[in-house]
């Protein structure tokens, strides 16, 4: 089916976008259903984009109104048999208006300053129909001078913004930035790479274009062939307190705090984000779990393989920055140290395996509550650490995760429509490392046992150094409403957990004295180990007494030290 989309933004300050689909149905077809996706590939949560639709209508090309009914949360059925028509026509216009005011990489945001349009959140599809070369035109205020997207530009006139995609999946997989944003770019292997920056960047002294190009060259050399796209767009919103990224077929949408780029560590974090999403164009957008394509945009698409999609990517992203010469081995290991320390503080690692964490992404990772850290673990976090361990194991066999990447890419090229299964990945690991390596790797993927990170890092010339603490610790985090201190979360088996302190409790008194924000934020300075204290809390409006005895804080990872510099550099810079 051929569909033309018209996207109109007339008064951006009202955050409304009008979308019109012009299409032609088969003459014998009596009904037609259109839908708005409920989620976005790469972000595994039902976001119910249709809740932002303000009105919907369907007409024939001659203007006669067609009967329609809403048949699900985001689907509308147009019925010719129930329409009162003077003259029936197969040419149809579907129009709706949608509210766009959420600035994330997986939603759309329109205001007086710009428009960021995320395909699944505003572009309807046609149920049961394959769209062939859909076209899309954008109309917006003349004060906005630029439109940037990875879609193919087929405009014949400068003042017309007309684009084309091969199908619906490709159409909605290309975010659009409209406004007066900064644009720059470079060529690599003769292919244009566009850098799109919206927002405010404080003075920083960094060479973003040069360093992003270096990241591109570093990532691409791991696949050692022509790039799988004819253009690529790096689109960043530099907005205070925002962070995140989402991969697309030939582009990425990123968000970062533009005030922080002057800080070297923060800048390396931004470059790692760039590397993470750029690497996804191979791992996820092409090498993908078999369940993730073709997409069901209305319902959850369950997979147990996000440890491959995101875990391996989380191992490689910071590693790319080191391999690109944009961080030292010590700076890279400091990032690994932070990840490891975070992982070891999560009791949920004993309850959910990587497979379970992946399968439950729809209800846990993207919807964390006060008990999330007690019941699950991130497949990004643990997945990255597990692939580090796999890399150590494969190095002993004269191989590495780099070689696994090459096998995965070769498999994709041979079976581009199939997707990969756990069995495919396991067979590749076995081919590279043998049964003993596969046994160790599969245990880390499928199990919840402690992992001996010390031994794996020693194989690569590094040593984990821990730091013991004598600080009093209760194992509860606070959040604040003004000066009021409210328990945000309680860790399993901590003193707070054993005492019966609850998330949501407002702590009013500690041993008879009022406890406010200043005291709660420095609580350890008031406590003594192994002494009992009385808390008075307000729980559901009722006063309760809680007896709590602080314990010694758990040990933390002080550093991952390089004990054999040559071996460490060789191990992490391995490319086979």
Write down the domain tally: 4
CATH architecture of the largest domain: Sandwich
Write down the CATH class of the largest domain: Mainly Beta
CATH topology heading of the largest domain: Immunoglobulin-like
Shape descriptor reads globular
Helical proportion, percent range: 25-40%
Determine Rg (CA atoms, Å): 27 Å
Q: Would you tell me the overall average pLDDT?
A: 97
- How many alpha or pi helices? 15
**What is the terminal separation in angstroms?**
46 Å
Given as residue ranges, the uncertain stretches (5+ residues, pLDDT < 50) are none
Strand tally is: 30
The main sheet orders its strands as 4-7-2-1-11-14-13
Description:
It contains 15 helices and 30 strands. It has 576 residues and is of the alpha+beta class. The protein has 4 domains: 3-179, Immunoglobulin-like; 182-266, Zincin-like; 306-464, Neutral Protease, domain 2 (Orthogonal Bundle), CATH 1.10.390; 472-552, Pdz3 Domain. Strands 4-7-2-1-11-14-13 form a 7-stranded mixed sheet, with no helix packed on it. Strands 23, 24, 25, 26, 27 and 28 form a 6-stranded antiparallel sheet that branches. Strands 16-17-18-20-19 form a 5-stranded mixed sheet, covered by helices on one side. Helix 3 crosses helix 4, helix 4 (306-323) runs antiparallel to helix 5 and helix 8 (379-395) packs antiparallel against helix 11 (435-446). The chain is globular and about 85 Å long.
